[in-house]
Design brief:
signal, Leu_rpt_41, globular, 736 residues, 29 helices, single chain, alpha/beta, Leucine-rich repeat, LRR (right-handed beta-alpha superhelix), 15-stranded parallel beta sheet
């Protein structure tokens, strides 16, 4: 109830606890606390946050980082009086503001959060956390894994986490990796009672209670309907038999096969795009995701016929990990899921997928069905799952790929999948098999797939063909490789099999291909373009042009097949001898953004070529963004580009990127003065809003550069960096 002027003077004197409580009063008084939180960041964190210009709420940024630092023991709350308040519980009061969290090393953070004294902290995170990251993980013992299970179950299965990302794990612990993957996919062993400090998970118990209250009449009606569709008459008997087999470690493989054969659920059994035929008691066949109590509806409860626990509410802690250890082993455990001879043959095909052989020659890309993977959803209960999975720099073995493939085959909630530097090699075929099975699922949501690695198992265009033929529903596809496999051929005749596979009409809107210095053959790209009428963005990186006519053929194909293309990007493609094609692109009436990045545009050009570029852009009223980084513009060419905005120009260019172009401060100042003159002639009417200047030589004269930047910022938004050009030049000389 304080007057606004008194509250304004009081806010900077408050501790974090009281500042947080005064947030509502400040808002009602029309006061912003953002400057105070920003000052807190500077005083406590003592670092400049990345992308600070994009931070919209310093309160959230501070409290989220504060939570992470306290959790990992890198911040002492007694170091600042504003943090050292006896009313203030660091983890508890900052947890509602945490939307992303990183756990690393020995998972000390997971152990701390799963501790009983942090129960309320975990409950807060279940409502606020959206992104969970794992980085630099090490092997862990059983007690740590138990804490991780509790954490993942609460945050994913009964929480709000929608993205799981894992980074930099050179030698992954297979058990731990499979545990994270399977729980992210919503799977966990059904007979294991997930306990929280001695008691069964309350949310699971409430759902079980709701299920048990279904009327006998409803059960009978559902049973009759299922019998008419050919389902087993007594699914509960099959469930009980399967649970008894799974709960007994001494069970023989024959008994396991007998139990699992009563309701085959593996994606290898799907034919003709129809869903697998199985008993109603087996949840893994149902696309319904288990939701939290607040989101649950009775209809959903009736559909989710989960396997019931058969060993009482308190399972042996060892049992919590039996399933993961089973998944991590090969068929010597007797649990390799081979329910038919044909599926066993498919599994061997995956094992023998040799480098250099076309993916279409294997079951996963040519035949229907998928690999007989080592993860068996029949033994698991289905919970809520995440929508984004990212794996960066984590080597995936053959068995791990088969596990991931089986998880992917029914991961209907998955929308984004990123596999980056995982050493897949021939195992990419196994991943494609799981994706093919997923694509046939009516409730599939996957729309974004990004695959990158050091070596390519097959030519890039061949892989693109395989992916789109297996998964035409994709909206975004990115394929990127650093080096070419030595077993690949260089010519278009090297592996023709994939080009013969017809690609169905796709939903593709964005296609990014990074070639490992491969020739760009339009004949291979043409079927992809013809099947992608909705394509809006195309990026071609590090490709070589096999002949002088190739770029012209590509432009003709783009004009004919992609009428909706808005953004076109070339990176590290030598266009020095393709000036005619460059000008044709710049005058295209449909393209809104064109990128020529490190394309050596002016390597062998004359002054007339630059004049033609400027004249062409001035006449093009549809082009909004022109990006020319790394083309050695220099001062004189930059100054000339200012004429794009002259009084007689029809250009509506909003963004210009001239990063890495050897621009010096005096050249930038001259460009600024010329631009100011054109703006004055046009009466201040100009649409130019963004200029990017990264990695130029502006440090050579700081005073001149500062003057140029200050004057430019009065015209448009300028993005640059403090780049040491002398050190960069020294690095360049050292590797010559």
């Amino acid at each position: 109830a304080l007057p606004g002027h008194l509250l304004r003077g009081l806010l900077p004197l408050l501790s974090v606890f009281h500042l947080e409580r005064a947030e509502g009063a400040a808002r009602r008084a029309g006061l912003s606390t953002q400057p105070i939180w920003r000052q807190l960041w500077d005083d406590v964190m003592k670092t400049r946050p990345p992308n600070s210009e994009n931070i919209t709420c310093w309160r959230k940024k501070f409290l989220e980082t504060f939570f992470s630092n306290v959790l990992h023991g890198v911040l002492d709350v007694s170091s600042d009086w504003r943090l050292n308040d006896h009313h203030f519980s660091p983890l508890l009061h900052s947890s509602p503001h945490v939307s992303q969290l990183t756990l690393c090393n020995m998972l000390q953070g997971a152990v701390e959060l799963a501790a009983e004294h942090n129960h309320k902290v975990l409950e807060n995170l279940a409502g606020s956390l959206r992104i969970l990251k794992f980085q630099h993980l090490l092997s862990s013992d059983q007690s740590i894994r138990h804490s991780l299970v509790l954490l993942l179950h609460r945050l994913i299965h009964h929480g709000s986490v929608s993205q799981v990302s894992m980074y930099s794990w050179p030698v992954p612990d297979t058990v731990l990796l499979v545990l994270i993957l399977s729980m992210s996919a919503g799977f966990w062993r059904s007979e294991n009672a997930l306990t929280y400090h001695g008691s069964v998970c309350g949310l699971c118990r409430e759902e079980d209670k709701a299920l048990s209250q279904e009327s006998v009449q409803e059960r009978a009606e559902r049973s009759n309907a299922e019998n008419q569709k050919g389902f087993p008459k007594a699914p509960e008997e099959a469930d009980a038999h399967l649970n008894s087999v799974l709960s007994d470690p001494s069970s023989s493989p024959q008994a396991y096969e007998e139990a699992s054969s009563k309701g085959p659920c593996d994606h290898t059994s799907s034919q003709g795009g129809s869903p697998p035929h199985c008993g109603s008691g087996q949840l893994s066949c149902h696309p319904v995701l288990r939701k939290t109590r607040r989101q649950h509806k009775p209809a959903v409860r009736r559909k989710r016929r989960c396997l019931r626990r058969s060993r009482g509410p308190y399972a042996d802690p060892e049992d919590l990990y039996d399933f993961v250890f089973t998944v991590a082993r090969e068929d010597n455990s007797g649990l390799l899921d081979k329910s038919s001879t044909k599926e066993g043959e498919n599994a061997e095909n995956w094992t023998n997928c040799s480098p250099g052989s076309p993916c279409t020659s294997h079951a996963g890309c040519k035949k229907r069905g998928g690999p007989a993977g080592i993860f068996s959803p029949k033994a698991a209960q289905r919970f809520r799952s995440v929508s984004t999975l990212e794996l960066f720099s984590i080597p995936l073995t053959g068995e791990t790929c088969r596990t991931l493939s089986n998880l992917l085959s029914s991961w209907v909630s998955l929308e984004n999948l990123v596999l980056s530097y995982n050493g897949l090699d021939a195992n990419i075929c196994c991943i494609l098999s799981g994706l093919r099975a997923l694509s046939r699922h009516p409730d599939c949501h996957l729309r974004v797939l990004r695959v990158s690695d050091v070596f390519s198992h097959m030519p890039c265009m061949e892989l693109v063909h395989c992916i789109l033929s297996a998964f035409p529903q994709l909206h975004t596809l990115s394929v990127s490789f650093d080096l070419k496999n030595q077993l690949e051929g260089n010519g278009p005749e090297g592996n023709p099999s994939c080009s013969e596979v017809e690609i169905p009409e796709s939903c593709l809107e964005q296609l990014e291909i990074r070639f490992p210095r491969e020739p760009l053959h339009t004949t291979f790209l043409l079927p992809v373009l013809k099947a992608s009428k909705s394509l809006q963005q195309l990026s071609l990186d590090s490709a070589t042009l096999p002949c002088s006519q190739e770029l012209g053929l590509l432009l003709e194909a783009l004009k004919e097949c992609t009428p909706n293309l808005k953004k076109l990007s070339f990176h590290d493609v030598n266009l020095a001898e393709h000036q005619k094609e460059v000008l044709l692109l710049l005058q295209d009436p449909v393209l809104q953004e064109i990128t020529f990045s490190f394309c050596r545009l002016f390597e062998s050009s004359t002054a007339e070529f630059l004049s033609e570029i400027i004249s062409t852009v001035k006449r093009n009223s549809s082009l909004k963004s022109l990006k020319l980084p790394g083309n050695r513009l220099g001062n004189h060419r930059l100054v000339a580009l200012a004429d794009i905005f002259s009084e007689d120009s029809s250009s509506t260019l909003c963004q210009l990127d001239v990063s890495s172009n050897c621009i010096k401060p005096d050249g930038l100042l001259e460009f600024t003065k010329k631009l100011e003159g054109h703006i004055q002639q046009r009466g201040g009417q100009i649409q130019f809003t963004h200029l990017r200047l990264f990695q130029n030589w502006l440090d050579q004269d700081a005073e001149t550069a500062q003057e140029a930047l200050q004057r430019l910022k009065a015209v448009c938004s300028v993005v640059n960096d403090s780049w040491d050009s002398s050190q960069a030049f020294a690095d360049y000389i050292s590797v010559m």
